[in-house]
Structure formats: structure tokens, C-alpha cells
Predict the 3D structure of the following.
Amino acid sequence: MVAQPATPHTSSEKTVRIVFMGTPEFALPSLSILHALADRTDWQVVGVVTQPDRRAGRGKKLVAGPVKAFALEQRLPVLQPKSFRQNVAPPTAEQPDPLAWLRMLAPDLIVVAAFGQILPPSVLQIPTYGCLNVHASLLPAYRGASPITAALLDGLTETGVTIMLMDAGMDTGPVLTQARLPILADDTTDSLSDRLADLGAELLAETIPSWLAGNASPVAQSDLPGDPSVCPLVKKNDGRIDWTMPAARVERMIRAYTPWPAAFTTWKGQNFKLWHGSVIPAHTSHGTVPLGTVSEVDGRIAVATGDGLLALHEVQPAGKRRMPAATFLNGAPDFIGSRLGS
């Protein structure tokens, strides 16, 4: 059920009315900090817009995202539009017209973090102070849906977050502030997302006062260092391992595709996921065995790749839970000498 919006503000009120848009775990710290600061500032989160519930689990039940769950706990008005395009579906009491709902809330500012939809001009034009976006890269690099995964795949040692004033393009708007964050050697998309989400929330809370006071000057991305790049939405099959790739690339895939879709190959014709691996030093040779062949090297379970060996530390065979590779080998001694992905 859609919660009803608060009464629209009048010109005599000084409260800065904020609508928050976001869906996954990454967005939660930003919403949480905005809501918490309401007691110490003149800000008020007057509504939350999030993606429709998704079906998940073996029972394929509808599950609310983290942002919706938090908003309902805090009794914030929630809207879950399929799209902001007009005439997508007739408005109902359960699902009112999203543009009319936003206008009724009369936000002074819209804050967006991993919402999952590109906002049309009809939305961008509603708030007095525009729409600010918390993006998980140092723009103009890694615009798009998967900046954290892309940074890990490319082997970067540093990334960061950007607070951007949104325009009609995909992450092309001018930049207000940025903060840098080192990428750790064992970071996964999961762990790096958590740290960037917290950093983004802190930067957002620091940026909004300057922006509202007129003390923050947006900088065009063309005036920032680096070339623009775009990273697409991650698809399930992106995690499939090609053993002609170098071991270093496969190791980065394992971390980049954790928790989803997971880096995977096949063993005996069935899906076989890799959750943790490492590159065996280059001086260790795998000889002339076919790529994807599993062997034992200095007590480690290793796979031959296009360049070097990949040591397996944690795996998940089809129908089983994640487990140490040594544990799996105890129950499947024929794993040694087999060929993955064939």
C-alpha cells in the first residue's frame, strides 16, 4: 500500500523538503543519514521513491528492497513507480500517478542513490534545488549501472564517490564534490559497495548545506581529469569464465562478481562457482596442459589459464554450499586432472 504524502509546504515554512530515490543496500546509508539529520537541521525527508518489489528466493515471493524496508520502519511515505513515463498505467489508489505524487510532496531537493531509473526532465524540473545523485565512481569515469564492478574488473587501486547535479543524461551532470577511496587487494563488489556507500552518505551530508546556501559551484565533467567511460548493467552470463584469459583477470572477475552473478565455470557439465582465488606467481609453470585443467601445485589446487595459474580457495559445486576448495577435493578426488569449462 502506498503511504500518503505529507501536506505540501507553504512559503512561510523554512524546512527543506527532501524526496529520496534509491533501492538497494548501497542507497541505505544516504537515506539513513538524511533522516537522522532531520533532528539537527532544517531538512525533512518527506517521501521515498524506490523500485517495485522483486521476486526472490526459491518461492519467488515479492521482496521489498532495503530502502523501502527502512522507509516503512520510519513511517515515511513510499512510492514504487514502474516508470516516470506518462501513461504507463492508469493511476490507482495503490499506485498513484508518480509525477502528481511528487508535485504534491513539493520537494525542495531530490536526492538519488542507486535508484535504477533515468529521471526524465519532468522529474528533474520539480525541485527548487534540483536533483543530487550519489554515484560510486570518480566521474567522468564509470558512468552507468555498474561502476564498482567495473573498477574491480579493471584492476584499479583507487575509486571514490561523486555528488553530482543531475541532468537528462546518464551520469553526465556537473560535479559538486568528490571523495577518494583505496581499493583493497581482497575487495569484492560487496565489500567495496559497503565502504563506498558509507563514504557517499558522509559526503552527501557535507555537500547539501553548501549547495543549499549557494556556496557550491558545479563543475562540468569536461573540465575534470580523465576520459568519460560507461559501464553497462551486469548480466548473469558476464560471470562465465573464459580460461584463455590471464589468471589475474579471472581473479578480478571472482571479486568483481561477488555477490552476483558470481564467477562461474562448469565441471562435469554442471555449474561450478568460484568465490575466492589467487594468482600463483608467474615463475610457477603449468607446462603444456590444456587451459582449464586442474592440478596440484605446491599443495594448492590450481587451474591453468591463458597466462599463469589460478589457485582455488573457495568453490561451490552445483547444488552445494560454498566450501573451501580443499574440502571439496576431499569428496571429489577426481577433480585433480579434470578440465573446467569443457
